[in-house]
Amino acid sequence: MKIGLEIHFQLKGVKLFCSCSTEGEKSNYLFKRKMTPTMSEMGHIDRAARYENIRNRDFNYYTSTNSCLVDADEEPPHMPDDSNINTAIIVSMALHCKIVDYVSFMRKIVIDGSNTSGFQRTGIVGLNGYVETSQGRVRISTVTLEEDASRKISESGKNAFYSLDRLGIPLIEISTEPDIKDENHAIETARKIGFIVMSTGKFRGEVDSIRQDVNFSMGYGRVEIKGVSKLSLIKDTIKYEIQRQKSLADISGIIKARGGTEITDFMDITHILKDTDSKIIKAGLNKNKKVFCAKINNARGLLKNGNYRLGRELADVAKNMGIGGMMHSDELPGYGLTDNDVNNINNFMGIENNDAIIMVITDPEIITAFKSELDERLKNLMSMNLAETRAATEDGETRFLRPLSGGERMYPETDIGLIEIPLKRLNSLEGLVPESMEDALNNLKNNYGFSQTEAMGIINNNLYGDFKDYIKVLNEPKIISRIILQKLPEYEKKYNKKLSGDELMEIFTMANENKWGRDSVEKALELYVSGKYPLKILANAEELKPLDAGRLREIIIELMRTQEITEKNLIYLLKNKTKSSFDARDAIKIFENIKNNS
Amino acid sequence: MKTGEKIDFEYKGDSYSGIFIKNDGKITTIKLSNGYNISALNENIKILREYENNYVAQDNIREIKINGKNEVYILTTGGTIGSSVDYRTGAVKPVRDISYIYNFVNNISEFNVKQINVANILSENVNSKYWIEYARRARDVLNKNAGVVIFHGTDTMQHTASALSFMFEKLTGPIILTGSQRSSDRPSSDAFINIEASINFTKSDIGEVGIVMHSDTSDGTVSFHRGVRARKMHTSRRDAFQSIGIRPLATYTDGRVSVNNNAMKRQDENILNDKMDDSVSIIYFYPGMPEEDFINIAANKKAVIIMGTGLGHVSDNIINAIKRLSKDTYFFMTSQCLYGSVNLNVYSTGRYLLDAGVIPLGDMLPETAMVKAMFLLANYPDNLVKLMKSNLRGELNSRRILEW
Question: In chain A, which residues have their Cβ closer than 8 Å to the Cβ of B57?
Answer without folding.
Answer: 41
